[in-house]
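Attaching the record inline, Q. Sequence:
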Amino acid sequence: MSFRKDLQLAVLIDADNIPYSNIKGMLEEIAKLGIPTIKRIYGDWTKRTVAGWKPALLQHAITPVQQYSYTTGKNATDSAMIIDAMDILHSQKVDGFCLVSSDSDFTRLAIRLRESGMTVIGIGEKKTPQPFIVACDKFIYIEIIGAKESIKPDISSSGAESSTTITEVDPIDKRFIQLLKSSIEDLADDNGWAFLAEVGSLIIKKKPDFDPRNYGFSKLTPLIKSLNEYFEIDERDSGKPRIKHIYVRIKSKSSSR
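Structure, as predicted:
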């Protein structure tokens, strides 16, 4: 899914459910998707558990919002974030929201914001419950942001890109192959070719947490090239120097033999 580069985003961070060590990478990731015009982080700053966030707040100009825990076992941060999100929504100052949390309690908020025409990007750990993930337009795992220095395209002897090996990558199983095939078929022309950028956007609509980095690849093109048993690639001139339009087609059974 492509996002407008001038997309005005409200970034709301749940300090109780997100590690502070990845804040720089998270903000760099968000900057690729739009402009973070509002940056707020919610937590009880009297607690030692969120003390690690404090240096990052000054460094990255994030506004802390104090929310006391009035009762034991209740996460007051959730309600504070939800109230602020609705206030920001009605102010009409942004085009979308980035909800940074691994908490499924924000599922209904994500749905409500999308119902109002907002773009919703989620960022959280891989333990994030599926309902929150699918409620977002796009969901990015913190683990791949933190591991991005380890995910670099290599050039094989054949000239094709492949990925370096990183830990905890998702397996490329039959279900994932079928997702790729069905998405290509949905967009294919009469000759079976589909524009790869559109395929990537459609996959994210079907599976918001899709990211080539989950599978150890920097981008979708090298991921598809690694699956040459199933797919073929056609790189076409775009009319601009050093820019190619990439098309993909499912290999026929006869050509894959």
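DSSP finds nine helices and eleven strands in the chain. The CA atoms of residues 13 and 100 lie 5 Å apart.

More tomorrow.
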